[in-house]
Amino acid sequence: MSHYIPPTHETDPDPLQGRSALIKGDPSFAEITEAVARPIEMPHKRWILFFLPALALLSLLPISLGWLFWEGIGVWGNNVPIGWGWPIINFVFWVGIGHAGTLISAVLFLFRQKWRTSINRGAEAMTIFAVICALIFPGVHVGRVWAAYWLGPVPNQMEMWVNFRSPLLWDVFAVSTYFTVSSLFWYVGLIPDLATMRDRSKTTIRRMAYGFLAMGWRGSHRHWVNYESAYLLLAAMATPLVLSVHSIVSFDFAVSNLPGWHTTIFPPYFVAGAIFSGFGMVLTLMIPLRVWFKLEHIITIKHLENMAKIILLTGSIVGYAYSLEFFIAWYSGNEYEAFLFQNRAFGPYAWGYWIMMSCNVITPQFIWFKKVRTNPKALFVLSIFVNIGMWFERFVIVVSSLHHDFLPSSWDYFSPTIWDVTLFLGSFGLFFTLFLLFLRYLPLIAIAEVKSVMPRANPHFVDPDKKPASRDHHASHGEVSAKSEPEPEPEPEPEPEPEPEASKDEPEAKEEAEPEPEPEPEASKDEPEAKEDAKDASESDDTPEAEASSEDHAEDADADEDADEDEKEEEAEKLLFSPPPSDKTDAKKDGKDNG
Amino acid sequence: MSAHGHDEPVVRPEQVNIADSSMWKKIPMIAGAIGIIALAGAFGLKGEHDEGFYFSYLTSTMFWLALSLGGLFFVLVQHAARAGWSIVVRRIAENMALTLPMMGLLILPVVFLGAHDLFHWTHAEAVASDPMLTWKEPYLNETSFRIRAVVYIVVWSLFGIFYWHKSTSQDSATGKSILDNSHKMRWAAPLGIAVFALSLTFSAFDWLMSLDPHWFSTIFGAYYFSGAVVSTHAFIALIVILLHRSGYLRGVVTKEHFHDLGKMMFGFTVFWAYMAFSQYMLIWYATIPEETEWFSYRGAGDYLALSIVLVFARFVFPFLGLISRHIKRNPKTLAFWAVWILVAEFIDMFWLIDPVGPHNAGNHHPAIEFGLVDILCFVGIGGLWLAVMTWGLSRKALVPVNDPRLAESVHFENF
Amino acid sequence: MGKRPKSFGLLAEYETPGDLYHACEQVRDAGYAAWDAYTPFPVHGLEKAMGLRASLVPWIVCVMGFTGAALGFLMQYWMAAVDYPLIIAAKPLNSYPAFVPITFEPGILFGAFGAVFGMLGLNKLPQLYHSLFNSKNFARVTDDRFFIAIEARDPRYHTEDTTKFLEETGALSVEEVED
């Protein structure tokens, strides 16, 4: 495969034979820059259409906070048994959403999932903004906000320190570390793209602004070496960090003795749930954006499909955890635990429980169907359900465990007040406002990273339109390059002539692209269907997308796709069939055809 | 890298086929013989009233079963995720999973003969006098316990044989059936993972957690799983290193693959620590008597030392030892850590099972009991396990030679 | 002759990563020391073609990470067990299982600082002005062009010879950049 033959729609390989292109249409580097940077330089008119409503929503935030500070937390619906109401629910909800960004960036990076490059920037931005939204709630729910600094390790007036044995304090450290590291990770990733924006700037102000932020980045390869090392290490550290943050959030509940909260599966189960909700939110944001920004060749159906599979995987892990909780609640022989779970499913909050179950466990099962997971509209609807379901998961955990506690005389029902609702809506306003500002001023796609996973970024790429012979004089360097062999994934192979290998590599011809593999550690971890997601047979498909430039056409495209797919498969059999070493001749011919 | 000449195949037959004269061809016989003798010796030493015997037997069974299940999991995940790098080591994992039917047979004595010695809840009088056990009886009763065991065994065996068969028959397939095999393996993988997750969890509940029938932990299945996966990667690395020493797989499984296996060992070591810490910390913190009891007798007597050893052997040392990429890429150092991890897995199984043994009943200073029977059980079951595994290894190619993406895997490089 | 004091060096422009890669091998083999390649994205394996050594960032991260973790634990131990010892929830003064989260988090935090600031420090960034920015063509380095600059301070640098050498490596253009 070093003799790379660029993938085209017709020759997308069978997924078991090779890898299809991540980016559709084989654009040049300049076209990628252009596609990403253009919308920032000439903003979409529709932008303001979205920005104004977001601002309006945001205005609810200062109003509800102002009233809260003036009046105290009595304005919320929290009551005696249910001391943790909406603020904690919303905190966990937002922090959960904040996990997909770093997960996409870090975990998928470590697993060489190159498809991440199209979505990681937006997802990271989403992470940061979601964490900011999350931080509001613990910040204000202490009531006396002016004493919020007591959350830090400072002695009080009695010279007594904070309680390090409290999981609420661990949260302070975990979430603030997570926020800091995610921001650094995002910024480091942005540096080369800021330099791109600087060099494209037409006005002095833009040049100064982007130039300042880019810190004089000039693409030096000596810099890239340190940069890549730092990026890899940040990814390696961010991965356990993601896990730790939501585990610590789960400790808030699980260290207690409360039925429904105290169970050992909580940490991995919360992490899976966080990833689940995070990917749900990424889909919710990316599906419309790829259409409005005309980025469908960069964020392809394939990307959506891969994310859908992760949703299926994590949704199933969450389902596994729900069932185990139920089983062990009974198996433990603890009658309080058993009562609680019965009460959850059939008590006064049964409606919440069944919303949660249907959104989180049942909805994702539709992703098993290829028709669903390759249809952006269906995925969009599905992702909304995931967001709703995950909010209700936290609602069920918090409220159902608290409302019937050990003292039946204090049992009560929880109802939110208008101020609970406005604060929550206000946090959405903040989230969308920040996200829209990000869209307006910063590149949504990691330009440099996308370029680096394109086939032509490989120094051993042979452009089929050019005579490979032109580089024969480098043959002498073959040795060296064989050793160094760069290249995204595969192989060595110094010499440039395409044909010989073609046969063997043919399959991989399209190497490059895609999802690579690997199991994800944690995910896999436990279980469940883990990789189911992993694509089933189908796969390759990579979708048609090319033509479908707008949502309206998307449906047609899907229809076509199926047809295409069949055809493709047949073709694949015909064309790519030469099994490895055997008949070379056919393969050779194919190679030429492609070229 | 001369293998990339124009007409050469991705792998040469002598790299991936064990020669008739090789020691590897003899291992199945030798290991099998040793295994049978050792196991016979173990049963011989058991005598009439050795209630501790099945604890030793279960420890070794769960250790080797972890490798079989881990092998199956590895195969399933690689197919499901369509991994490229792992194709060259997948056959080894397939052979590990091939041992599942035999491990199923070896588990049967535990289920049918040893259950009374092992599981307190199988005694009717104990159940009657203990309201907790009475409560649990719908799950913890011998009939359903046996049925579940048979179900696990059948399901695992089917998957183990399915993947081994599909993959090895692909080696000699031609034309369209090559792809068909790949498609079928891939198609079954997500399903397999779902089934695997449930069966592994409940088998760990049945065979390990219910040794102390009062205790419960929702994460327990994931705990056993995490140990199994880390050991599996270690074992694969070890086998490849041994095959390299015999001259096989050189240039096929490269440093790059060692690096990845090492990363997985490192990652799952941390993952195990995460599981273990989650379980321990939450129980320690909440201090609910029926949960802490399980840890309290592992913190008493000899077991305190063993618990500390476990933390260091299973997490601290391998974590520090496997950080460096040079260690992961060097077969010698990687082999050292692979062996280390396997030893740690055994300590873990011992730590889970031995404290409940009869020698500690009512003992306020519980003591470790490890003797000849333990060794014989380990060697016996291990011998049979290795016999099946190496039988598969030496009969078929060492890599799936017809996998359409084999070249990608051979030429794979880390960044 | 050769060096004019005002010159930063020569800048050669290439069209594809492959051209750059092979050119780098030649520059490396010709024995130049003060030179660098400039690319819009990290070209895979280029460090080998350039003969660069591995980055020092991992060492910085390692030291910082372990320092952060140690500080995190010591802080908790000192505050909870030494400076104001207080039994809470029947937990021992040194409740190390409960101290794990805040041992881990500062470890990661410091490690991340080490990675980012270590990288910036090793790269001597921020550096808002650089001589290469004087070249018009160089603006495309963040878009789709690949460059090699051999600096005038290199002992082997010789304006004409080096220009000729660079042209032979397949450069699209070679220009002299002012300092």
Spatial separation of the terminal alpha carbons of chain C? 18 Å
The side-by-side strand order for the widest beta sheet of chain C comes to: 2-3-1-4
Bin the strand percentage of chain C. Answer: 5-15%
How many separate helices of chain C? 5
Q: Which percent range fits the helix content of chain A?
A: 55-70%
- Write the H/E string of chain C, N to C: EHEHHHEHE
Q: How many discrete structural domains of chain C?
A: 2
Overall 3D form of chain C: rod-shaped
Number of strands of chain A: 0
Sheet/helix structural class of chain A: mainly alpha
Topology order of chain A in helix (H) and strand (E) letters: HHHHHHHHHHHHHHHHHHHH
Radius of gyration of chain A: 26 Å
Instruction: Write down the domain tally of chain A.
Output: 2
Briefly, what CATH class of the largest domain in chain A? Mainly Alpha
Main sheet summary of chain C: 4 strands, antiparallel
Fold blueprint:
The complex is a heterotrimer of chains A (595), B (415) and C (179).
Chain A: H1 29-41, H2 46-71, H3 86-110, H4 120-141, H5 167-200, H6 204-214, H7 221-254, H8 266-292, H9 301-331, H10 335-346, H11 350-362, H12 370-373, H13 376-403, H14 418-441, H15 447-452, H16 478-484, H17 499-505, H18 521-525, H19 551-576, H20 584-594
Chain B: H1 13-16, H2 23-46, H3 53-80, H4 87-98, H5 100-113, H6 115-118, H7 124-129, H8 131-136, H9 142-172, H10 176-207, H11 220-245, H12 255-286, H13 289-296, H14 302-321, H15 325-329, H16 331-353, H17 372-395, H18 406-410
Chain C: E1 7-14, H1 17-29, E2 35-38, H2 46-50, H3 57-83, H4 96-122, E3 146-151, H5 159-168, E4 173-178
Describe the protein.
The complex is a heterotrimer of chains A (595), B (415) and C (179). Chain A is mainly alpha-helical and 595 residues long. Chain A contains 20 helices and no strands. In chain A, helix 4 crosses helix 8 (266-292). Chain B has 415 residues and is an all-alpha fold. Chain B has helices at 13-16, 23-46, 53-80, 87-98, 100-113, 115-118, 124-129, 131-136, 142-172, 176-207, 220-245, 255-286, 289-296, 302-321, 325-329, 331-353, 372-395, 406-410. Mean pLDDT of chain B is 91; it is low at 1-6. Chain C folds into two domains: 7-53 and 128-178, no CATH class; 57-122, no CATH class. Chain C has a four-stranded antiparallel sheet with strand order 2-3-1-4. In chain C, helix 3 (57-83) packs antiparallel against helix 4 (96-122). The longest helix of chain C has 27 residues, at 57-83. Chain C is rod-shaped, with a radius of gyration of 25 Å. The model of chain C has no long low-confidence stretch (mean pLDDT 90). Classes of the chains: A mainly alpha (595), B mainly alpha (415), C alpha+beta (179).
